[in-house]
């Protein structure tokens, strides 16, 4: 009987229990929608889920761009249901028809009753937002992607030791009403135990309840560090198809758990679709095919986020995702890693200010004392992944800073020796390397292994002479502001242009790096370094804030420029200031002025010569 | 005399109600399934109705009632009648309660049905049988409306089957509903009504004027 009959074939209602679906029907209204009344209906009946029964409608963004053509069985209105935002999209009716309307309370109840139902909308929401264009940013919420995992973890973790009996573990879980529990020995996360484990590995196997948790838990589960972004948490979850993710601090000590629901609560899950498509790729070919969609996705994403620094993060997250996937594919053919290691991202991927034209900067950190055979495995890995990333659209590094280069595959001792050498005898080449290699991040591998190593590297950097040399290097590059505060452009084939990467963004990165190294910080991203430096005595709060603003402005300017010249031969980092609006020109000048002052500040503070 | 005045007042009030734009009026779509065409001989098997406040149809709260008529009803050899199975009659409603509910629903609303003749005949019979009044403000007959708008030319009268509920619906691009069932037909009729009205009347048009388009003002 209609409309139950219709919903039976209409995803995600098709996955509901018959009783749930009939209940949904009892909550339905339907409307006759035509060109004249469709937008009034949308406004008056929201928040609600709209289900097209018949007719054809075009859903357009506030700028008039077609987002989706809606036909029988298509749904709309859910982004507003999920986020509580106003509906900014407009409808036009191509053909009149009947649309079912499910009110918010019913939608919420179905979401709670059926995980599959909820998942459907989270995915759909992600896809929708990726195709939606900006302008809808009302400032009501900051980009959730920028938030750290730590900021959403509220509950203290429920944990037990690995020698707990299964029965006691089950008691703890039922007392706390939780479906998973962290297994922690000596403050370290060693495993996770879930309802599923109890069902599959204990009850189904007829195991005694006296057996210890260690025997049935999932060992060394995927976890996420609290300082990482929610975007990373999401990547890890989709990658491993889990809904619970232990959160650890930099010492690998568990601090809580983040769930898919926590992320949804942040209400913006847009890149989930893209990331999961990359993670679901089952072959190299498939991965490359998905990766080819990245520029297009990134463009739409860039258009709708308020702070474009997220775009750099997203690009880095996507590159991380591709890297992880390639490593898994390699492991499929050549077996798993024969020793402890970390895949390192350097440069812009490390700093998470990657752009569409950034090239690869990566390497491998290996355990000490490897046999030749083990080294061969990593050689193969480096070559396979770098070549794969290249085919995924991440250009090869002209300076050959890639894990395919034997110099970029080092054991802990080798890397430390290299850093020691660079910091103690800072030749120009060594200093140039430092500007790349100090901005590192582990993409794959044991967090603790990397962090131990990275802290030793940080100690090596706290060397006055070395920092002084870095400060001198920063001051060798002069900001393109001339007499009377006029732009000094370079005469190129493209006209009179300014390279805002070299003379702007890179300089701020360099300046922030020097302060961060001096303070012994290990994080690679410039905004994160500046944030951590807020309490520093060397860099006062106002200068810190100015630098961050200049960096954000330049990143934004570069992104806009890159999107404008994408698919052309024009330079991706250089632009003609005459083509900028008056406001942007003025802002660019003040950004350069800030950089100039910061350069001088670094010179005064770190190098004896002073500049 | 007082009775007459009262009736006059009622008529006047209804008349006033019908001056409102049709989009601000409440409607009740209705379908009755019976064992035959003659209210005196045949029985009501099922009745369904649904409120409409254009452009909204209150689908979820549509009413659907089945009557078992004690032992009197004979389903005969056929396992189903009008899509009803023996199973349906296990949950049958009490007629008086049901009709009282319908009476309240119809009061102040315009009745919408496809081919009002038979439904109205049965309702009139029920009025006498149960001493209940059905007093809608007017009747909108989707069949009559369709005939008036598509088959005006007396030289080209509609052919057989051209005015069935499903034929009218497909003419308006509405989806095909396969089951023949009081509930589905009510829904189908309501949707057809809205399609007809929205395509032929400005939202500000008076209800009276819209009803005139199917020449069935009561």
Automatic annotation (TrEMBL), chain A:
Ranges for domain Cyclic nucleotide-binding: 49-110
GO molecular function terms noted in the UniProt entry: [protein-PII] uridylyltransferase activity
Pfam family, one: DUF294_C
Stretches assigned to the CBS domain: 153-211, 217-274
CDD domains: CAP_ED, CBS_pair_CAP-ED_NT_Pol-beta-like_DUF294_assoc, NT_GlnE_GlnD_like
Residues annotated as transmembrane: none
Keyword tags: CBS domain
InterPro entries in alphabetical order: CBS_dom (IPR000644), CBS_dom_sf (IPR046342), cNMP-bd_dom (IPR000595), cNMP-bd_dom_sf (IPR018490), Diverse_CBS-Domain (IPR051257), DUF294_put_nucleoTrafse_sb-bd (IPR018821), GlnD_Uridyltrans_N (IPR005105), RmlC-like_jellyroll (IPR014710)
PANTHER family per the UniProt record, alphabetical: CBS DOMAIN-CONTAINING PROTEIN, CBS DOMAIN-CONTAINING PROTEIN CBSX3, MITOCHONDRIAL
Name this protein carries in UniProt: CBS domain-containing protein
From TrEMBL, chain B:
Native source organism of the sequence: Idiomarina aquatica
GO BP field: DNA metabolic process
InterPro entries: Ribonucl_H, RNaseH-like_sf, RNaseH_sf
GO cellular component: cytosol
Keywords: Exonuclease, Hydrolase, Nuclease
The protein's name: 3'-5' exonuclease
Keyword Hydrolase: yes
Any matching Pfam family: RNase_T
Domain Exonuclease per the UniProt entry, residue ranges: 26-202
Molecular functions per Gene Ontology: 3'-5' exonuclease activity; nucleic acid binding
């Amino acid at each position: 009987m209609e409309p139950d009959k219709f919903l039976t074939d209409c995803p995600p209602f098709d996955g509901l229990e018959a009783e749930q679906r009939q209940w949904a029907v009892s909550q339905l209204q339907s409307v006759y929608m035509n060109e004249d009344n469709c937008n009034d209906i949308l406004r008056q009946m929201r928040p609600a889920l709209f289900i097209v029964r018949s007719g054809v409608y075009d859903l357009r963004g506030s700028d008039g761009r077609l987002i989706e053509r809606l036909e029988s069985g298509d749904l709309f209105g859910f982004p507003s249901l999920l986020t509580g935002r106003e509906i900014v999209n407009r409808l036009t009716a191509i053909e009149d028809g009947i649309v079912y309307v499910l009110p918010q309370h019913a939608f919420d109840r179905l979401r709670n009753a059926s995980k599959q139902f909820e998942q459907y909308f989270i995915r759909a929401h992600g896809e929708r937002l990726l195709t939606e264009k900006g302008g809808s940013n009302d400032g009501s919420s900051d980009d959730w992607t920028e938030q750290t995992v730590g900021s959403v973890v509220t509950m203290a973790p429920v944990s037990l030791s690995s020698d707990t009996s299964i029965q006691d573990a089950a008691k703890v879980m039922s007392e706390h009403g939780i479906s998973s529990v962290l297994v922690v020995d000596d403050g370290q996360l060693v495993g996770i135990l879930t309802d599923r484990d109890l069902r599959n590995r204990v009850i189904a196997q007829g195991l005694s309840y006296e057996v210890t948790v260690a025997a049935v838990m999932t060992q060394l589960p995927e976890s996420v560090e609290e300082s990482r972004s929610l975007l990373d948490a999401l990547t890890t979850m989709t990658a491993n198809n889990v809904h619970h993710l232990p959160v650890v601090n930099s010492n690998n000590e568990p601090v809580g758990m983040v769930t898919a629901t926590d992320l949804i609560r942040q209400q913006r899950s847009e890149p989930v679709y893209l990331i999961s498509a990359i993670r679901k790729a089952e072959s190299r070919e498939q991965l490359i095919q998905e990766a080819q969609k990245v520029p297009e996705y990134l463009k739409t994403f860039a258009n709708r986020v308020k702070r474009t620094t997220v775009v750099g993060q997203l690009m880095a997250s996507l590159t991380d995702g591709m890297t992880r996937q390639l490593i898994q594919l390699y492991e499929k053919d050549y077996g798993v890693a024969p020793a402890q290691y970390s895949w390192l991202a350097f440069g812009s991927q490390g700093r998470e200010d990657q752009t569409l034209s950034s090239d690869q900067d990566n390497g491998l950190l290996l355990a000490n004392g490897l046999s030749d055979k083990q080294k061969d495995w990593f050689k193969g890995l480096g070559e396979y992944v770098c070549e794969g990333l290249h085919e995924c659209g991440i250009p090869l590094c002209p300076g050959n800073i890639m894990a395919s280069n034997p110099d970029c595959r080092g054991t802990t001792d080798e890397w430390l020796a290299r850093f020691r050498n660079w910091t103690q005898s800072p030749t120009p080449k060594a200093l140039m390397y430092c500007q790349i290699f100090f901005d590192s991040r582990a993409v794959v591998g044991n967090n603790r292994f990397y962090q131990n190593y990275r802290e030793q590297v940080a100690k090596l950097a706290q060397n006055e002479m070395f920092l002084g040399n870095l400060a001198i290097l920063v001051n060798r590059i002069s900001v393109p502001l001339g007499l009377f505060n006029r732009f000094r452009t370079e005469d190129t084939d493209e006209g009179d242009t300014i390279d805002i990467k070299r003379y702007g963004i890179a300089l701020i990165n360099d300046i922030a790096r020097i302060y961060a190294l001096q303070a012994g910080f290990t994080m690679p991203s410039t905004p994160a370094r500046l944030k951590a430096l807020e309490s520093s005595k060397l860099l006062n709060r106002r200068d810190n804030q100015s630098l961050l603003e200049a960096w954000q402005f330049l990143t934004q300017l570069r992104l806009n420029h890159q999107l404008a010249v994408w698919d052309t031969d024009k330079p991706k980092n250089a632009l003609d200031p005459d083509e900028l609006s008056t406001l942007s020109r003025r802002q660019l000048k003040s950004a350069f002025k800030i950089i100039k002052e910061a350069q001088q500040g670094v010179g005064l503070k770190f190098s004896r010569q002073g500049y | 005399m007082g009775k007459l005045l009262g009736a006059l007042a009622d008529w006047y009030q209804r008349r006033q109600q019908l001056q409102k734009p049709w989009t601000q009026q409440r409607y009740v779509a209705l379908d009755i399934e019976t064992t035959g065409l003659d209210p005196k001989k045949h029985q009501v098997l099922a009745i369904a109705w649904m409120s409409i406040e254009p452009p909204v149809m209150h689908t979820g709260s549509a009413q659907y009632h089945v009557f078992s008529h004690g032992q009197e009803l004979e389903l005969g050899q056929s396992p189903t009648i009008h899509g009803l199975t023996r199973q349906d009659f296990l949950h049958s409603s009490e007629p008086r309660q049901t009709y009282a509910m319908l009476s309240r629903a119809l009061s102040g609303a315009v009745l919408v049905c496809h081919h009002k003749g038979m439904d109205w005949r049965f309702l009139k019979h029920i009025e006498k049988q149960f001493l209940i009044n059905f007093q809608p403000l007017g009747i909108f007959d989707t069949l009559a409306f369709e005939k008036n708008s598509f088959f005006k030319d007396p030289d080209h009268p509609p052919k057989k089957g051209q005015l069935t509920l499903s034929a009218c619906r497909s003419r308006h691009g509405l989806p095909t509903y396969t089951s023949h069932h009081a509930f589905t037909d009510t829904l189908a009729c309501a949707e057809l009504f809205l399609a007809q009205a929205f395509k032929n009347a400005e939202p500000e048009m008076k209800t009276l004027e819209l009803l005139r388009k199917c020449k069935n003002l009561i």
